[in-house]
């Protein structure tokens, strides 16, 4: 019915269907009895209520049946879950790095990719990490989900069993663009995987300017990919004409080295029209002049 693209998907679905089925039986059963009782014990037939007290058989029955049902649910959940915690030793290892609001995947040899590519029918262990807050790595088609917690490495494993492309989502609310925090997992043949893996570059060395931007938390408000967060995106900002308010006077400035310096050191001097004043603090004494130049170089590079 739904795509089951990993070795664990069937077990998870079975547990789900069992619980859903039991829920459905109760829905129909309780509704039926309710309607039946409303008719049977209506006031015109039973004008006086009777008090019923202690019925051992009934009490034992309504304890044992629910216990059996709960144990049945537990059984199906447990047999689906147990193998997921039993890690294979010969699996391929990939590190998953999560941050606000993107995924990246690090392959052996420090190769980095922003989508996850996996060979079909081969076990993979994912080592899940976070650079900032708690995220949750979620692939619905694999029925697999695990939290990414800063300062900790969580693991999950599975065997992708169907060639295809599936969604990767973040399942833990992690801030403004949580719902945009997505990627893809592509399951391919072993040969295609090898070809792809040979072609990806080594983990890119981060430009100095970008490292400074990240270290100072700028990306919390300024995206690097054109998306509008709290403030303007850094992408394509350099060289742009911007309408700003300086002491209430509206005028147009060009985003150049000088404007970037002013915006970092005195963010409230020329405030971009439409943006609130006083949200950004001054970085005077926090970001050095030489670092401002490196940031500017970086901004020039992301047009
Ligand atoms: Cu990351 Cu939600």
Structural summary, described in words:
- The chain has 303 residues and is an alpha+beta fold.
- It folds into three domains: 9-85, Orthogonal Bundle (Helix Hairpins), CATH 1.10.287; 92-199, Immunoglobulin-like (Sandwich), CATH 2.60.40.420; 208-301, Cytochrome c-like domain (Cytochrome Bc1 Complex, Chain D, domain 2), CATH 1.10.760.
- 32% of the residues lie in helices and 24% in strands.
- The protein has helices at residues 9-40, 56-81, 190-199, 208-215, 257-265, 289-301, and strands spanning 92-99, 102-107, 111-113, 116-119, 124-130, 135-139, 144-148, 154-158, 164-170, 182-188, 241-246, 249-254, 270-272.
- The strands form three sheets. A five-stranded mixed beta sheet has the order 3-2-1-5-8, with no helix packed on it.
- The radius of gyration is 29 Å and the shape is flat.
- The model has no long low-confidence stretch (mean pLDDT 89).
- The structure holds dinuclear copper ion.
- Residues 98, 101, 135, 170, 172-174, 178, 181 line the site of dinuclear copper ion.
């Amino acid at each position: 019915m739904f795509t089951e693209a990993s070795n664990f998907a069937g077990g998870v679905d079975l547990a789900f269907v069992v619980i859903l089925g039991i829920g459905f039986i109760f829905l129909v059963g309780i509704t039926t009895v309710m309607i039946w009782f409303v008719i049977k014990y209506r006031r015109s037939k039973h004008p006086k209520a009777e008090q019923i007290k202690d019925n051992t058989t009934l009490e034992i029955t309504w304890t044992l049946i629910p216990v059996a049902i709960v144990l049945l649910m537990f059984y199906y959940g447990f047999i689906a879950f147990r193998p997921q915690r039993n890690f294979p030793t010969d699996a391929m290892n990939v590190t998953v790095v999560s941050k606000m609001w993107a995924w990246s995947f690090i392959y052996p040899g420090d190769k980095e990719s922003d989508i996850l590519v996996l060979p079909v029918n081969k076990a993979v262990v994912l080592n899940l990490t976070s650079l900032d807050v708690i995220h949750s790595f979620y692939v619905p088609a694999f029925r697999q989900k695990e939290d990414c917690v800063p300062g900790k490495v969580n693991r999950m494993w599975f065997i992708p069993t169907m060639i295809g492309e599936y969604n990767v989502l973040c399942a833990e609310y992690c801030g403004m663009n949580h719902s945009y925090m997505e990627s893809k997992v592509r399951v391919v043949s072993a040969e295609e995987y090898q070809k792809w893996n040979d072609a990806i570059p080594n983990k890119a060395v981060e430009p100095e300017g970008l490292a400074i931007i990240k270290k100072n938390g700028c990306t919390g408000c300024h995206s690097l990919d054109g998306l509008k967060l709290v403030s303007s995106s850094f992408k394509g900002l350099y060289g742009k004409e911007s309408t700003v308010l300086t002491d209430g006077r509206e005028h147009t400035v060009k985003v150049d080295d000088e404007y970037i310096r002013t915006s970092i050191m005195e963010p409230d001097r020329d405030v971009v029209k439409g943006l609130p004043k006083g949200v950004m603090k001054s970085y005077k004494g926090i970001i050095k002049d030489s670092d401002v130049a490196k940031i500017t170089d970086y901004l020039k590079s992301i047009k």
